[in-house]
Write a structure and sequence with these properties.
Elements (H helix, E strand, L loop, with lengths): L2 H17 L2 H8 L3 H15 L4 E4 L2 E4 L1 H23 L8 E5 L1 H6 L2 H9 L4 E5 L2 H10 L4 E5 L8 E8 L1 E6 L18 E5 L5 H12 L4 E6 L3 H10 L4 E4 L8 E5 L6 E7 L5 H10 L1
Parallel strand pairs: 3-4, 3-5, 8-9
Antiparallel strand pairs: 1-2, 5-12, 6-12, 7-10, 7-11
Keywords: DNA-binding, Transcription, Transcription regulation
GO molecular function: DNA binding; DNA-binding transcription factor activity
Protein name: LysR family transcriptional regulator
Length: 282
């Protein structure tokens, strides 16, 4: 087996790991989807390990897959660094991955400053699990995400923290309060994210722990849509305190919910360029 074939396989797997999707990875590699599928299957046979699993409609890397993706990305980066010493390649843009809330409410000004200084930056979006996975496998250089407990295998620096807040219309029964507790939401119909979202799951656990009854007024994807439904009078919502609202909506801290902490996450073996990006975001 030639080294050229090994390099091609690593490049193919790195792209597959980035997209977690055979169709998009095959399009970027300019090969057919069956050809890419065969290449990944042969890699699995060669290693004697599964590299990914299918859960519902999504593909997830196994532990071996994450390690191979990290190795593939590191190998590609070292090759690119070597070629740059020969003036064969321009510097590659650093990759930042974060969720929609972080981009909307935390990272706008830092990103503008970074771009104004002439730095190249590629932006990707993903939830906390996808962001951590991308940082681990090297397909993202830096991640910004909300975490309950930072992972031990990555460098995590606290960026900002916010209280969880109840947002209501000014005519709601709780609108005049300076703070509330979860018990004040007994029997409320709330605007909430979908059931698979960490924020919704934490809220449900907290309400259950206190034996509180509540119901779903409507499920909404994304903070801005939650705020919109509250403004329409569909019901109140518990949101991350970083979420921006208009004067028509009151924000009231919820005293017995933990704060939301955003972290800047990198691998421990980060390069000087990644270290600089992390510093500019913090």
């Amino acid at each position: 087996m030639s080294m050229a074939l090994v390099a091609e396989d690593l490049e193919a797997f790195a792209l597959f790991a980035r997209h977690r999707n055979f169709t998009r990875a095959a399009e970027e590699l300019h090969v057919s989807q069956p050809a890419l599928h065969t290449r990944i299957r042969k890699l699995e046979q060669r290693l004697g390990r599964s590299l990914y699993v299918k859960q519902g409609r999504q593909l997830h890397l196994t532990d071996t897959g994450e390690r191979l993706a990290a190795f593939a990305n590191d190998t590609n980066d070292r090759a690119a660094d070597f070629l740059r010493t020969l003036d064969a390649l321009p510097p590659r843009p650093l990759v930042l991955m974060a969720g929609s809330g972080a981009y909307l409410y935390l990272l706008g000004d830092p990103i503008r400053r970074i771009l104004a200084k002439g730095h190249e930056l590629q932006l990707r979006t993903g939830d906390a699990a996808a962001t951590l996975a991308a940082v681990r496998d090297g397909s993202a250089d830096v991640g910004v995400t909300a975490l309950t407990v930072p992972p031990d295998d990555l460098d995590s620096d606290l960026l900002q923290q916010f209280p969880q807040t109840l947002i209501t219309r000014s005519d709601h029964r709780l609108a005049g309060r300076r703070s509330v507790r979860l018990k004040d939401l007994q029997d409320e119909a709330l605007v909430v994210p979908p059931k698979d979202r960490p924020h919704r799951q934490q809220l449900e656990r907290s309400m259950l722990d206190q034996g509180l009854r509540w119901s779903v007024a409507v499920e909404a994807e994304g903070w801005e849509l939650l705020v919109h439904f509250v403004r329409l009078g569909i019901g109140p919502a518990v949101v991350n305190g970083s979420v921006r609202t208009t004067g028509a909506v009151r924000k009231i801290p919820v005293k017995d919910l933990p704060p939301v902490r955003y972290y800047v996450v990198t691998r421990t073996d980060r390069s000087e360029g990644v270290h600089e990006l992390k510093r500019m975001l913090s």
